Amino acid sequence: MKQWLSTVEERLERLPVALALEWPGGQRAGPRDAQVLLRFGGLGPLAALAAGHLGAVGTAIVEGDVQFEGSARDLMRAATGFLTTDPAQAETGGWRRLLAWVRSLRVHSPERDAQQVQFHYDLSDDFYALWLDPRRVYSCAYFRTPDMDLAAAQEAKLDHICRKLRLAPGEQFLDIGAGWGALMLWAAEHYGVQATGITLSRHQHAFVQERIAERGLQRQARIELCDYRQFAPAQRFDKLASVGMLEHVGRAQMRRYFETVHALVRPGALVLNHGITAAAVGSAQLGAGLGKFIERYIFPGGELLHVSQLLQDTAAAGLEMVDTENLRPHYARTLWAWSDALERQLGAARAVLNAQVGSERGGRVLQAYRLYLAGSALGFEQGWMALHQMLSIRPNGDPSCGPIRGAQSDYPFTRDALYSRPVSCSTNSNPAPPET
């Protein structure tokens, strides 16, 4: 005991923020005027802190065995000083990947995926509304200019995706994992597409239906409550996007997912997948107990794969990657904005959660989300995770088709098109009438 207490005290002196610790028996370490105070109800979580098992400390905070005072930002800045390994690299190795694959097979049936998605996204619409932007975009924003606030950056992200896909009026557009509908509604209103979204969240499905009716888009947009494996549209789509959904697919189902995407789109179509990726090749999950914490309290069934594995599965399904962009620092800034917004609304958040799920569970959920948002922001800053947008085409087999010979799609094979007026797509299945 003396050894790990000595370890803790040594690390306290080197932290970037002042942290104080209290534990049973009236003992204390750290400055009196500390920015963050952790009160330990037992020695187990204190030993976990000394060993760098941050996930176990987070669990103790959620379960009430450790009380903390101070901001979530400062707590996370202090936490980095107790890590003994790189969380991105800690859970790699052949046997770990094998176990992760076996587990993935077990937890990613359509029924289990529906339960896991609803556990997170159907928690409380009012709770999410407290800290998301007005459009409720629950994915990485795109801070195209440094002065953008979160709402503007989320709109910039929506437009960034639409421009990458080169959306044009009348096209059939599918959004897999449509969330609260921001992307499909933006595409319908700003690009004139026929937008279809699918989701497993009952709350989000109802919310998007209301938004479609409010905006008079019933003839242009629709949302279905179904699994991507069970979606059976009457026709193929010209363009497809999936934002923040890859993390829920599972490594054992990833090849099937991309094969399904391939079957859902027309030859020559463009496909964009936007998702969180692992920083380390061969990663099974985040180390230091962080992955286990997220699995237990936030995203049951969530799995992160390295971008190289995702692109391998993309290619195996017959899709060709034409552009990949890493937006990792943008997600750090997005998550800090969410975290700061929640910290400003702690009283309101507690009241909403208590009313929705009861005071006992509500208190645990609030602490879990405080740690999850700030911890994830830190993780993206540190490079423990990444965020990739992967643009692919389904080649149509005709080398003469496209803006440059061999394109086999309307993708221009230059990035200039992202910053100039989009050109109408040659694969358009429902073109707008020509101007007269």
The averaged pLDDT comes out at 91
Fourth-level CATH superfamily of the largest domain = Vaccinia Virus protein VP39
Secondary-structure-derived class? alpha/beta
Shape descriptor: globular
Strand order of the largest sheet: 7-6-5-8-9-11-10
Count of separate structural domains: 2
**Extended strand count:** 11
**CATH architecture term of the largest domain:** 3-Layer(aba) Sandwich
Organism: Simplicispira suum
Protein name: SAM-dependent methyltransferase
Family: Belongs to the CFA/CMAS family.
InterPro entries: CFA/CMAS (IPR050723), SAM-dependent_MTases_sf (IPR029063)
How would you describe what is shown here?
The strands form two sheets. This protein has a seven-stranded mixed beta sheet with strand order 7-6-5-8-9-11-10. It has two domains: 2-82, SCP2 sterol-binding domain (Nonspecific Lipid-transfer Protein, Chain A), CATH 3.30.1050; 97-419, Rossmann fold, CATH 3.40.50. Strand 8 (237-243), helix 11 and strand 9 form a beta-alpha-beta unit. Helix 4 (72-79) crosses helix 16 (359-382) and helix 14 (328-344) runs antiparallel to helix 16. The protein has 16 helices and eleven strands. The chain has 436 residues and is an alpha/beta fold. The relative contact order is 0.14. It has helices spanning 2-14, 43-51, 54-62, 72-79, 94-107, 110-121, 125-131, 150-165, 182-191, 202-214, 254-264, 290-297, 307-316, 328-344, 346-357, 359-382; strands at residues 19-23, 27-29, 36-40, 66-69, 172-176, 194-199, 221-225, 237-243, 265-278, 320-326, 385-393. Residues 422-436 have low confidence and may be disordered. The protein is 44% helix and 16% strand. One of its GO terms (molecular function) is methyltransferase activity. Belongs to the CFA/CMAS family. Keywords: Lipid metabolism, Methyltransferase, S-adenosyl-L-methionine, Transferase. One of its GO terms (biological process) is methylation. This is SAM-dependent methyltransferase.
